[in-house]
Amino acid sequence: MALGWLTVTELQAYWPDAPYLEDYDVEGLLTSARVQCEEYAPALDEAAVVPENWRLAQAMQARALYRSALAGDNNQIGAEGFTVTVFPMDWVVRNLLRPKKGRLSVR
């Protein structure tokens, strides 16, 4: 496993209110998010340091997992008429782990 994935303490820089989620296991969120990010990201050498964009992706995925748990079966959070749909792994998180290479196209 590569070095440098987020700890609960480090998560505060990315998600300031995370330590106050007393009813939820923040460490479990981080572990689950790391596993998902590791599966999606390209392979990294054992002794490599995790890139900063991957750490941000882990924080964002942990937050998405938390929101997904809040949403329940209907996959939405919020009052009637003001809902936000949550997704398992957002395209922003995926792009942090596997950035798209810029391609020049001529039309």
Helices and strands, with pairings:
Layout: H1 8-11, H2 26-40, H3 52-71, E1 76-77, E2 84-85, H4 91-97
Antiparallel strand pairs: 1-2
What this model shows, in words?
The chain has 107 residues and is mainly alpha-helical. It is 43% helix and 4% strand. It contains 4 helices and 2 strands; from the N terminus they run αααββα. It has helices at residues 8-11, 26-40, 52-71, 91-97; strands at residues 76-77, 84-85. A two-stranded antiparallel ribbon has the order 1-2.
Strand order of the largest sheet: 1-2
Give the strand tally. 2
Number of helices: 4
Measured between the Cα atoms of the first and last residue, the distance is 44 Å
Mean pLDDT value: 78
> Unreliable runs, pLDDT <50, ≥5 residues?
none
Rounded radius of gyration (Å): 16 Å
List the secondary-structure elements in sequence, H or E. HHHEEH
Q: Which percent band covers the strand fraction?
A: under 5%
The main pleated sheet reads as: 2 strands, antiparallel
How much helix is in the residues? 40-55%
Shape: globular
Class computed from helices, strands and strand pairing: mainly alpha
